[in-house]
Amino acid sequence: MNIGIVGCAGRMGRMLLKHVIEHEAAELAGGTERMGSEAIDQDLGTLAGLKPINMPVTGDTKALFEASDAVIDFTIPAATRDHAKLAVETGTALVIGTTGLDGKDFEAIDEAAEMVAIVQAGNMSVGVNLLCGLVEKVAGVLGDEFDIEVLEMHHRHKIDAPSGTALMLGESAAQGRAVNLADVSQRVRDGQTGARRAGDIGFATLRGGGVVGEHTVIFASEDERIEIAHKASDRGLFASGAVRAALWCHGRAAGRYSMRDVLGL
Ligand code: NAD
Question: Is pTM, for the whole model, over 0.70?
Answer without folding.
Answer: yes
